[in-house]
Amino acid sequence: MKKELSELMRDLDVKNAQAADSDGKRAAKQHEKGKLTARERIDLVLDPGSFVETDALQEHECVNFGMEKQKFPGDGVVTGFGTVNGRPVYVFSQDFTILGGSLGLAFAKKIMKIQDMALQNGAPIIGINDSGGARIQEGVDALHGYGGIFFRNVRASGVIPQISVIVGPCAGGAVYSPALTDFIFMVNGVGNMFITGPQVIKQVTGEDISQEALGGAKAHAEKSGNTHFVFNDEKACFDGVRTLIELLPSNNMCNPEVVDWGDTIDRMESDLGGLVPTDSRKSYDIHDVISRVVDKGWLMEIQPDFARNMVIGFARLGGSAVGIVANQPAWMAGCLDIDASDKAARFIRFCDAFNIPLVTFVDVPGYLPGKAQEHNGIIRHGAKLLFAFAEATVPKLTVTLRKSYGGASIAMANKDLGCDFMLAWPQAEIAVMGAEGAAGIIFRKDIQAAAAEDQSRVKAEKIQEYEDLFCNPYVAASKGYIDMVIRPEETRPRLIQALRVLKGKRDTLPPRKHGNEPL
Ligand code: HXC
Fold first, then answer.
1. pLDDT tens digits for 292-347?
2. Please, which residues have CB within 8 angstroms of residue 518's CB and are 6 or more apart in sequence?
């Protein structure tokens, strides 16, 4: 006999209640571990009341190892869509309380469906990860599921922003999908990432290491560089995701929104020049320069604890989102090394893919010399930076603050790599190398030929000679290699003027399948 409508409604309510963990038992398990539930996380990242859940009743079909008795509506991942500051986004959130958030075929299909919708509709996707990786009971079906997710991550790369949040012990396949996305957020003491966990490492190599030391936020922020943002609690982390989404365009066919924070365009910063010592051996913190130039001093710094000789992040100039790339003289004198090149190159490529102009601040003594750098591939890694800047077709603005030597001078987005506006401060030194090194090479014989008591005087004269000729911005300016030598305090208005002029920039690459970036 057909059921009454009221009964049918009750059935639906029961099913939805099961999916939503309405008795709160699973939530309690998660809270005991100091973690939020999958749904609480979604509520924090999306605008209140905007979440629409999909596939809440989907279940796995696995019958191995008694799995037919362990079915959960939704199968351990909450998927759907909603809005962030009114703009559509897609989201999935893994539920560790169901089989450790492990990924089986049904679970994977739910994520793939959301990935397909996000790509088709040109909206960002946020993946909240809290998972033990491939569901061991499902075997090859779980591997197949991951493969499909990775494939979609790659197809969506450069088309829609993809953001991963790591809020649990993520192992195996659970970390490769985040690695294929644009930005990884981690919460200190909550999120871990590793391909193989401490137990396997102990068995295979005998090494003893805790989960946190191996794959905690600190390890990935400082050592591996795998994470881009670290927060101390989940609420702050999801606020951070919202801030990033607000800054980015929804997809590669749109421009980022212009948001006026009321900072005056022609604001001059009279102490800006004085922040940078004219003695190029003295250091200073590049953050002090950036914060005086950008709107309201705000920089959303990315990977602040990794390759600290290079500072990257998002800021606004005259309301427009920009990507900042800057040498940091306060760390390893701001030289370029493998990690700094990798860090900046990937960021430049992201900005280029999503129509975000690049603003580069240069104070670079060159590449870090040394056997370790050479043998670990600085040639290949350093080339990534050249490749990324040269390939980028977004507006590119460069400000040379002080040192700009050798290959590093080119790699920091000079005119030859397609910089649209090349500005320099009066203390800029654009040369093949610093005067002391240069004089020691080209005048070595003159110095040696001088009487012993005269050698240091001759050397000083030769250094001065080289400095007078090259260690200034005027030779480069006289040849058109820089467009303007400006007073430091003018930096902000000049950059904003240039950005406005470049608004309609059209630059296309030759037709090709893709370039062959050194990886
Ligand atoms: C099925 C899993 C699981 C998994 C955890 N569980 N991981 N079930 N498949 N992969 C289950 C546990 O059996 C347990 O169930 C519950 O989830 C919670 O797990 P605990 O171990 O109690 O939690 P915790 O102590 O916090 O440890 C979390 C963990 C650990 C570090 C993630 O569970 C772990 O090491 N899991 C295995 C990780 C792993 O090796 N995954 C496969 C990777 S291979 P009960 O019923 O007891 O509550 C892979 C291949 C993909 O992913 C390759 C693609 C490139």
1. 999 999 999 999 999 999 999 999 999 999 999 999 999 999 999 999 999 999 99
2. 380, 381, 383, 384, 387
Query: Strand 429-431 and strand 396-405: pairing?
Result: parallel
Superfamily of domain 273-433+472-502: 2-enoyl-CoA Hydratase; Chain A, domain 1 (3.90.226.10)
Fold of 37-247: 2-enoyl-CoA Hydratase; Chain A, domain 1 (3.90.226)
Amino acid at 475: V
Q: Are 328 and 309 in contact (CB under 8 A)?
A: yes
Separation of CA 458 and ligand 1 centre (Å): 70
pTM above 0.85, yes or no: yes
**pLDDT of 21 above 80:** no
Report pLDDT for 436. Answer: 83
Is the beta carbon of 170 within 6 A of some atom in ligand 1?
Answer: no
Ligand 1 and 136: CB distance under 6 A: yes
Whether 483 contacts 421, CB under 8 Å:
yes
Ligand 1, closest atom to CA 133? 52
How far apart CA 145 and CA 162 sit, in angstroms, is 18
CB of 107 closer than 6 A to ligand 1? no
Which of 472, 478, 347, 368 lies closest to 413 in space, CA to CA? Answer: 347
Catalytic (active site) residue 434: no
CA of 168 to the centre of ligand 1 (A): 11
407 as an active site residue: the answer is: yes
Domain range annotation of the chain: 37-247, 273-433+472-502, 435-470
Ligand 1 within 6 A of 240 CB? no
* 273-433+472-502 shares the fold of 37-247: yes
**Residue 469 confidence class, pLDDT cut points 50, 70, 90:** confident
390 included as an active-site residue: no
Q: Which of 99, 130, 144, 204 to mutate to test the pocket of ligand 1 (most atoms within 8 A of CB)?
A: 99
Give the Å distance between the CA of 71 and the centre of ligand 1. Answer: 17
Strand, helix or coil for residue 382: helix
